[in-house]
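User: quick one, sequence for these tokens?
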């Protein structure tokens, strides 16, 4: 029998009630954060004609937007720890709306980079991370279900936005469409308003209380702070957000290298799918519908993949399943040039949606399997910072190949080859990591958390890991909680 799920929070999460309203709001913000850059590609062909730029230049819009969304993650986390999820998401929604409304008045491609890429992209970053954090505060036992429902907002939103963008363009042009999209993105502010704070006092109130305690202690003589102690405290606060000791973690480094390589070919096929369909003579609505097909399959693939990955046959070696998903994704892109008509592209979109959903469903689960729940927040911050570089370069490199050869097939071949190589690398290195872990366990008789926790044999290990749910995303606001967290990381 599984042990009861416990939490280190100073309160008991309700696991329901208003939390379901929070999940609904999170599905909106998460949906916009992940799907908006993909659906925006509907306008690429028209923007290219309007500004007379190349494919690589137009692809920088989505690249900058995705890079700002990923790269802004650590900043978003710090702001949430300081002000809470609700104001951060509301501010992010305002940035998204302002960016798109400003884009409707742009007269150069560089201005679009700033308005759509940087401003709206950073606004999406302020929507994504707080949504994940607030769910961790409202749910504990039902948290996997709540996260699954929130993440399902991405394919649902993509199904809606892709044809909607084409409809808006046909009726209002791209400038009018950007104005309307700016207003639609303001719904993130409404969703953020649902993120009602929960738990003990946080933010400025708690900091003021801590300040008063410190001043009282100084007056009585019980607190003798030195410069060395202050330096250690600053270092501990930094490690709270980004635990740089993870760079000594073998499993984390394998994951990081494989994912950085993977993202060179992960987003470009989505960016150029609709333009490629238009290039071979398919009408605009049918081209936009390809993204909807991809999103529908993705919507089904994510929960199905989660169920398979959580089974007793796959869970102990989940890293292999993740490696296979990446290689399968690459194989789909390698076969895409064989699709020369709409029926072929529909088949490609189905398999692409399946492969894309498999990768997305396990992207963060495999990272938590490697580093553990306590260090997961820091790991995500470090990974997103590294990944934003290849996310930024991937679509423009694909656009350069299209400009150079005048054919989309070389872009798909490049993306497919990169992802097959990334999947193969992860498979080989994870095999090495599993072997080393087995040797270390045999020699020491226990797991060494400093080199990865990927060997989760049986259900007891998985149940014991679930006992930590709810604490990795909870900001530590008092000095005692901070020291406990740091000590926990250093002892691991």
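Assistant:
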């Amino acid at each position: 029998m599984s042990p009861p799920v416990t939490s280190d929070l100073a309160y008991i999460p309700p696991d329901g009630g208003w939390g379901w309203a929070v999940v609904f709001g999170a599905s909106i913000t998460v949906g916009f954060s992940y799907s908006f850059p993909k659906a925006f590609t509907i306008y690429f062909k028209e923007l290219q004609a309007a500004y007379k730029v190349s494919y690589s230049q137009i692809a920088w819009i989505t690249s900058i937007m995705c890079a700002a969304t990923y790269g802004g993650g650590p900043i978003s986390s710090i702001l949430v720890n300081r002000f809470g999820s609700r104001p951060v998401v509301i501010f992010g929604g305002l940035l998204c709306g302002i960016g798109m409304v400003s884009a409707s008045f742009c007269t150069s491609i560089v201005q679009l980079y700033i308005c759509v890429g940087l401003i709206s992209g950073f606004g999406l970053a302020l929507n994504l991370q707080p949504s994940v954090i607030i769910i961790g505060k409202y749910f504990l036992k039902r948290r996997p279900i709540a996260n699954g429902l929130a993440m399902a907002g991405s394919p649902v939103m993509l199904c809606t936005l892709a044809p909607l963008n084409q409809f808006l363009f046909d009726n209002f042009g791209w400038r009018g469409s950007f104005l309307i999209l700016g207003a639609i993105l303001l719904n993130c502010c409404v969703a953020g308003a649902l993120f009602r704070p929960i738990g003990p006092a946080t933010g400025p109130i708690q900091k003021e209380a801590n300040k008063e305690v410190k001043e009282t202690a100084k007056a009585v003589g019980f607190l003798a702070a030195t410069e060395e102690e202050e330096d250690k405290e600053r270092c501990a606060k930094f490690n709270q957000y980004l635990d740089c000791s993870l760079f000594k973690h073998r499993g984390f480094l394998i994951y990081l290298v494989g994912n950085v390589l993977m993202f060179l070919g992960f987003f470009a096929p989505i960016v150029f799918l609709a333009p490629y369909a238009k290039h071979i003579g398919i009408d605009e609505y049918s081209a936009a519908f390809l993204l909807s097909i991809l999103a529908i399959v993705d919507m089904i693939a994510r929960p199905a993949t989660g169920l398979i990955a959580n089974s007793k046959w796959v869970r102990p070696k989940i890293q292999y399943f993740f490696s296979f998903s990446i290689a399968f994704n690459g194989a789909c892109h390698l076969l895409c040039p064989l699709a020369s008509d709409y029926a072929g592209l529909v088949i490609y979109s189905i398999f692409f949606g399946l492969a894309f959903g498999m990768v997305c469903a396990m992207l963060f689960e495999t990272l938590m399997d490697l580093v553990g729940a306590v260090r997961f927040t820091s790991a995500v911050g470090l990974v997103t910072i590294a990944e934003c570089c290849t996310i930024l370069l991937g679509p423009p490199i694909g656009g350069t190949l299209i400009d150079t050869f005048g054919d989309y097939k070389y872009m798909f071949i490049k993306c497919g080859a990169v992802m097959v190589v990334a999947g193969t690398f992860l498979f080989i290195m994870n095999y090495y990591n599993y072997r080393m872990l087995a040797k270390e366990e045999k020699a020491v008789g226990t797991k060494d958390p400093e080199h990865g926790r990927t060997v989760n044999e049986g259900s007891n290990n998985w149940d014991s890991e679930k006992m930590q749910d709810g604490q990795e995303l909870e900001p530590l606001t008092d000095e005692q909680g901070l020291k406990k967290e740091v000590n926990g990381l250093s002892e691991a």
